[in-house]
Amino acid sequence: MRPAPIGSAVTRFRATGRLLLLAHLLFVAWVALRPLDDVLWVTAPNLQPLAGIRADLALGPVEGARRIGEGLLLLAPLGVLLPMAGGRLQVPPFVSLVRTVAAGAFLSLGIELWQTGVPGRVVDVDSLLLNTAGIALAHLAVVPLTRARLRRRWEAARGAARTRVGGAPLTGEDAGAGTTPRIPRVHVAP
């Protein structure tokens, strides 16, 4: 039985990434955009960077770590799912990091702004900072190593596919040349 072509594997990888991304975004919308139960009063919006983090840390190490951890972990999977949904292997690591963190920051900002219309929720700039930091940390921890592993696997599969009709591996000049492209709709003139 022949292995599946490389192109179809990449297509399945992208489709899986997009499906997981959609599922995670639906989960985030459910968690972040539902009204709080029986809110008697609402705190003022926090527009001063790091003020909320300092207030969380003032509650004690356990409670502060829990609240900061929630902020870091809510959107952290986007650091992996956004590049996975794109499905590109040949992207410089810094470009991938910047693109992923920027997209995640815009999503976090959108969620924060949508929360202004939800009873009991207010804008918190520290939430935006923690969500973005979580995305960056998840991306740095997973994506570069995974892409390197997938690139090695892809190169090995490409190398195995480059064989002559008789089964002998390509050597010398033929190895870099690849196969001759064929365009079926171009006809030879009479």
TrEMBL record:
Domain VanZ-like: 22-142
Domain of life: Bacteria
Region (Disordered): 166-190
PANTHER family reported for this sequence: INTEGRAL MEMBRANE PROTEIN, MEMBRANE PROTEIN-RELATED
Protein name: VanZ-like domain-containing protein
